[in-house]
Design brief:
Helix content is 6%, strand content 54%. With 539 residues, it is mainly β. It folds into 4 domains: 17-144, Immunoglobulin-like (Sandwich), CATH 2.60.40; 149-261, Sandwich (Immunoglobulin-like), CATH 2.60.40.10; 265-391, Mu homology domain, subdomain B (Immunoglobulin-like, Sandwich), CATH 2.60.40.1170; 396-538, Immunoglobulin-like, CATH 2.60.40. It has a 5-stranded mixed β-sheet with strand order 2-9-8-4-6. β28 (374-381) and β29 form a beta hairpin.
Length: 539
């Protein structure tokens, strides 16, 4: 093939390619007019519609049109879709020259006031007699207006370092639409030690709100201890928003600050001669409240008020030799008539009061919301206030029973046991736990001489196991974790295993299994808990 022919063929190919792209570019330049019409501003949660208008401004047919409409972030649609694809049939088929059509998309928008929400649309089509498709795009932005959702925080403006404080978050909705999959979260300042919240949250920082209807409201109360240096500013940040496709869309924010101040009165609380005492239900509590003027001003003729809060307290058992008990708000009052230091509370003066109160032996839990209980002491001296929180230990309980007619294993032999005869029997253990989650839980016993553990004859809940050490004869049920409320409003933890005995002679009652100890670590108070069962004899 000569060079002239090659050049001629190449030139034709270039001209054809240029002509093809020139045609396509010509069609891209406004042959289809496309626009989104919508409100410039809408209130959050208000229902409205986008109108997509498209018109064939050319002189040829536009075939096989397809539209993809993309809703803004935070859009709520009936089917939950974030994009809507409209095929040719739904669009009315071929768009003829001069023909104008519209499509409507109804939605609601969520977000913060002032947010800019952008909707986008793409329409692809095939110009008549061309095999390639082209497309036109357009977009429209809407500003979010009024958000009828309230979020507020209530907390002290000032606090002394190391003092407990309470943060109260309130929220309510006037949005004319049920808000689903809401969450309220809080960002704590540095040096804040979380203690508890009502209701309980996830990771102590997030509270899910499954649905919030118009006129609904709710509250979250957080207790903790705020540390820092005088003149520090500690800021709490609360947000409420909605989860969509794994993204958190913030609807409302509230920020409040607390100033750390140098205290003018130093309070000390001892219970049963110990600061930070962890209470066990059934305790008799001896309170000693000390107060000292560490400021630079004298105070005169003031009163000390101590208010007690806690469902575990028996307020009928209060004894306060010098104080006056006010049943209405469960407070005790001392004044200068009985405590001389309160008449002239000058700088560096120190005073002390004491009283006694019992805790209930048992306190009924209703659900997981009652987990991690505590007793709160609120003290007021003149204009100075301070709180102390004392955590309540969980309570473990265990039982062991012997069965010779168990359906779990095949037991045999006489009971009571007889000399010269072998008896196999089943032991059932149960573990219960009340107020707080417990870790590293286990139940142990040492088998009596003459009693044999039958290997393989065990039944345990998933995630737990029974082991036996032949050298020490210790039998252990490794439980691991026991949730608060186990055996209260949740099922007990239980296991079973089989033992055997073949006594040669019997002179006294035969010990079948000794005392068993259930132990674990309280994750709320960090204390080690134990309880024991009675031994069981064959009589």
């Amino acid at each position: 093939m000569n060079k002239k022919l090659i050049f001629f063929i190449s030139l034709i190919v270039v001209i054809l390619v240029f002509f093809f792209f020139w045609q396509k570019m010509a069609f891209d330049r406004g042959i289809l007019k496309l626009e989104i019409i919508g409100p410039d501003k809408v209130d959050v949660g208000e229902e409205f519609e986008y109108v997509v208008k498209y018109k064939n401004n050319g002189s040829i047919n536009l075939e096989n049109p397809e539209m993809i409409f993309t809703y803004p972030d935070g859009a709520i649609t009936d089917d939950g879709a974030k994009t809507k694809k409209v095929l040719a049939d739904e669009l009315g088929g071929t768009i003829y020259p001069g023909q104008e059509r519209t499509m409507k998309f109804i939605t609601r928008l969520l977000g913060k006031e002032g947010d800019l929400k952008k909707a986008e649309v793409r329409v692809s089509f095939q110009p008549q007699d061309l095999k390639v498709k082209t497309e036109t795009t357009s977009s429209f932005s809407t500003i979010l207006g009024k958000l009828p959702l309230d979020l507020s925080m209530d907390l002290p403006q000032k606090s002394g370092a190391g003092r407990p404080i309470t943060v109260r978050i309130s929220y309510s909705s006037s949005v004319p639409y049920p808000l689903k999959d809401l969450s309220c979260s809080i960002e704590y300042p540095s040096d804040f030690q979380f203690v508890s919240s009502k209701p309980k949250g996830m990771d102590n920082k997030q509270w899910d709100i499954p649905i919030l209807n118009e006129s609904d409201s709710g509250k979250i109360e957080i207790s903790g201890i705020l540390n820092g240096n005088p003149q520090d500013q500690k800021v709490f940040k609360a947000k409420i928003g909605v989860w969509q496709d794994g993204n958190f869309i913030v609807l409302k924010e509230s920020n409040r600050g607390v100033a750390i101040i140098a205290p003018s009165v130093q309070f000390t609380e001892k219970i049963n001669n110990k600061e930070g005492y962890a209470v066990t239900m059934g305790d008799r509590l001896h309170y000693e409240i000390s107060f000292r003027n560490v400021g630079d001003e004298d105070m005169k003729n003031i009163a000390l008020i101590v208010k007690l809060e806690g469902s575990g307290l028996d307020f009928n058992s209060i004894q306060a030799p010098d104080g006056v008990y006010q049943k209405g708000d469960n407070s005790l009052v001392w004044d200068g008539n009985v405590i001389s230091e309160l008449q002239d509370f000058s700088v560096n003066t120190e005073g002390k009061v004491e009283f006694w109160i019992s805790t209930n032996k048992k306190w009924a839990m209703r659900n997981q919301g009652d987990k991690n209980p505590f007793i709160k002491t609120s003290m007021t001296l003149g204009q100075i206030k301070q709180e102390f929180l004392n955590k309540i230990n969980s309570s473990l309980s265990a039982t062991q029973n012997i069965r010779t007619d168990s359906k779990i294993f095949s037991d045999s032999g006489p009971m009571p046991v007889q000399s010269g005869e072998k008896t196999t029997f089943t032991v059932e253990w149960t573990a219960k736990n009340t107020y707080n989650d417990v870790s590293n839980a286990k139940m142990t016993t040492v088998l009596p001489s003459g009693v044999r553990f039958i290997d393989g004859q065990t039944r345990t809940p998933e995630g737990t196991k029974i082991s036996y050490d032949e050298g020490t004869r210790q039998l252990t049920w490794d439980i691991g974790s026991i949730e608060a409320g186990t055996g209260v409003f949740n099922d007990v933890k239980n296991c079973a295993f089989q033992l055997s005995i073949n006594p040669e002679t019997i002179d006294t009652d035969v010990l079948l299994i000794g005392s068993t100890q259930l132990s674990g670590t309280d994750l709320w108070t960090n204390n080690n808990l134990t309880t024991n069962t009675d031994p069981i004899y064959s009589k």
